[in-house]
Amino acid sequence: MAKSHVEAVYVKVSCCTELVMVSVSPCAYRHRYIFADELYLRSGCPVTWIQTYMYDFIYPVYECQDKDNNNAYMLKNNVVSEQALLFQTELYFPPRDIRYGPQKIPLECSASR
Fold it and tell me: 0.85 cut: is pTM over it?
C-alpha cells in the first residue's frame, strides 16, 4: 500500500510565449534520489536534458499538448490580459519505490505577450 505523505520535490518553472522550461532537482526531501525516468510532464513528455544536479524539461508551448480523456490539453494556455499568457500543466512523478504513491504537481507560469 502506498504511503499517503507527499515527497517534497523542488521545481522551478519559467516560460516565454514560445517555450516552457521546468527544472527539477533529483534530490528530494529526506535525501530520496529521483531518477529522470520517474518524471514526466503530465502528457507523457520526458526529461529533455539531464544535468548533474538538475533535470530539465524544455518544450515549445505547442508540443506536449496531447489530449487527455476529457479532451483537455495538458499544457493549457490562458489569456490573462492583453499583455500576459498563463501556462498550466502538471509534473507527474510515479516513483520506482512502490511504497510511495504517484504524485501530480500542478505547475504554472505567466509570460508577457
Answer: no
